[in-house]
Amino acid sequence: MHVSQPGRELTASSLGMAGNTQTRISDLATVAYFVGGTATGILQHASAGPGLARLEGDRLALSMADKQSNVAALAARTQILATEVTALRFRYFDGFEWRSNWDSKVMSGLPKMIEVELQLRPSSSGANQAAASNAANTYQLFIALPMAKPIDTSTMQ
Questions:
Q1: Taking Cα atoms as reference points, which of 75, 149, 88 lies closest to residue 119?
Q2: pLDDT tens digits for 132-153?
Q3: Are residues 111 and 70 in the same domain?
Q4: What is the span of the domain harbouring residue 39?
């Protein structure tokens, strides 16, 4: 997701410095959530460890690092938030149906609701450690966006 986040220490810097993801070039930031240590993605394996990870940084600098396949720069801006998270899924409700992806620019608006589903590794304490290791705890959170207008995506290609 891309957000406008004015920084107090916003500095003007040359595009040559844009490779340094610590430098804020503009007020536009990229924020991404993913599960580290899983899947086949290079960034998932390069993150600091398994669990829910958050990548945040200047939009231009992160975009340039991504285009240059600078995994080290992207991993440096990644923080593990919760090691117990083993899976993460987002779904978006347009007012008519659920979708697995959402681009506000393409859809010309925000979704009416967002579903966040987390799977957590069960705690390994207690007598049933073997049984607990096979079962995952799944939690869902629904976030309503009441000001969003329904968008009929069935007519879109």
A1: 88
A2: 555 679 999 999 999 888 887 6
A3: no
A4: 2-82
